[in-house]
């Protein structure tokens, strides 16, 4: 029964997840806390890979030599037991080459820990925006990363046995393996769509500013099309090597990456978005196609955004018909931080928003 949508929802809703409560329906191994201490050298700073909204991530190594990534729930994290259960139950039932693989979990009192396959090239944001802006990200690598993310989202939305909306897709949640294959991670905020349901509503909006679709940020409405919006932002960041939002480096009403992309597209100068590190071997037709698809994804009206199935066909060049003309996207002009933040604080609906933590994994 735990392979059905109803069964998985009941498992998430009912399982208490107390220490060693690794019961029926949980498809990943339980690890004791002592083995976590040994694998991470007592969670030493030397083993620390980075930090996300969930908490710090450490390199772990078991006696046989297997390397793992150990994610430790922070006591001050905005994410808690509900998000932890989401990861343990949902991601264990998802199998795709472009999704990170959960290897196990651990609970000891207030300690909640997740074990993942180790990604030697860390997170996409650390390579795109890190101090050295890695030379590894030539155009072919960037395009393959975009395609891999699209295929992973298509699996979540359409092809997996459980249909999932990720709700927090961003470059820091894309991990890269030894061959630079992208793997979507961090399913703590993910939600399952049951039956013929295509969208849902929440009074607790949690996500990352700069990647959130307007209908989700303002009204709490999320769907596969809100993931599509986030994907469009990620595409623009990958091809340009620039962050969509960085409050402390801009003046009021300065254009965001979205605004720059839209302006250049309208002026017929989309190639000016190209990151200089990708330029030497860039396939210009692929680049223009990526800009086009990215702008289609971030249109303000969700019904006008393509599905991930359409996007995969567009990117692969197998869609014979001409691509639709994108309409003006949401968030073309960046508001000052103080003005923007006020849009998302509503005491009556208990709305929350988290910011990206710009630190590699």
TrEMBL record:
It holds the Pfam family PK_Tyr_Ser-Thr. InterPro entries: Kinase-like_dom_sf, Prot_kinase_dom, Ser-Thr/Tyr_kinase_cat_dom, Ser/Thr_kinase_AS. The keyword Cell membrane applies. It is found in: Cell membrane. It is a single-pass type I membrane protein. Residues 43-331 form the Protein kinase domain. It is an enzyme of class 2 (transferase). Its EC number is 2.7.11.1. GO terms for cellular component: plasma membrane. Keywords: ATP-binding, Cell membrane, Disulfide bond, Glycoprotein, Kinase, Lectin, Membrane, Nucleotide-binding, Receptor, Serine/threonine-protein kinase, Signal, Transferase, Transmembrane, Transmembrane helix. It catalyses: L-seryl-[protein] + ATP = O-phospho-L-seryl-[protein] + ADP + H(+); L-threonyl-[protein] + ATP = O-phospho-L-threonyl-[protein] + ADP + H(+). GO terms for molecular function: ATP binding; carbohydrate binding; protein serine/threonine kinase activity. Its main location: membrane. This is non-specific serine/threonine protein kinase.
């Amino acid at each position: 029964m735990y392979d059905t949508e109803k069964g998985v929802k009941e498992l998430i809703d009912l399982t208490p997840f107390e220490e060693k409560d690794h019961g029926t329906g949980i498809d990943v191994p339980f690890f004791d806390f002592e083995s976590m201490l040994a694998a991470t050298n007592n969670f030493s700073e030397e083993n620390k890979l980075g930090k996300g909204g969930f908490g710090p991530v450490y390199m772990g190594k078991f006696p046989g030599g297997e390397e793992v990534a150990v994610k430790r729930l922070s006591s001050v994290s905005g994410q808690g037991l509900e998000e932890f259960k989401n990861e343990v139950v949902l991601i264990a039932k998802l199998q795709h080459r472009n999704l990170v693989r959960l290897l196990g979990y651990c609970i000891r009192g207030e300690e909640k820990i997740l074990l993942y396959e180790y990604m030697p090239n860390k997170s996409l944001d650390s390579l795109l925006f890190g101090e050295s802006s890695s030379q590894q990200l030539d155009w072919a690598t960037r395009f393959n990363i975009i395609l891999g993310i699209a295929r992973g989202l298509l699996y979540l939305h359409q092809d997996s046995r459980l249909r999932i909306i990720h709700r927090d897709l961003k470059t820091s949640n894309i991990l890269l393996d030894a061959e630079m294959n992208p793997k979507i991670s961090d399913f703590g905020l993910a939600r399952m769509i049951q039956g013929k349901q295509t969208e849902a509503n929440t009074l607790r909006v949690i996500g990352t500013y700069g990647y959130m679709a307007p209908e989700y940020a303002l009204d709490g409405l999320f769907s596969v099309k809100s993931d599509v919006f986030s994907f469009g932002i990620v595409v623009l960041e990958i091809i340009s090597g620039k962050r969509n939002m960085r409050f402390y480096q801009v003046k009021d009403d300065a254009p965001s990456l979205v605004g720059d992309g839209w302006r250049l597209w309208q002026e017929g100068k989309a190639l000016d978005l190209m990151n200089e590190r990708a330029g030497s071997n860039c396939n210009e037709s692929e680049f223009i196609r990526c800009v086009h698809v990215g702008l289609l994804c971030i249109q303000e009206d969700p019904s006008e955004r393509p599905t991930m199935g359409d996007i995969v066909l567009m990117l692969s060049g197998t869609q014979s018909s001409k691509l639709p003309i994108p309409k003006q996207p949401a968030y073309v002009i960046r508001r000052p931080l103080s003005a923007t933040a006020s849009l998302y604080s509503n005491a009556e609906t208990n709305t929350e928003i988290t910011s990206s933590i710009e630190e590699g994994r």
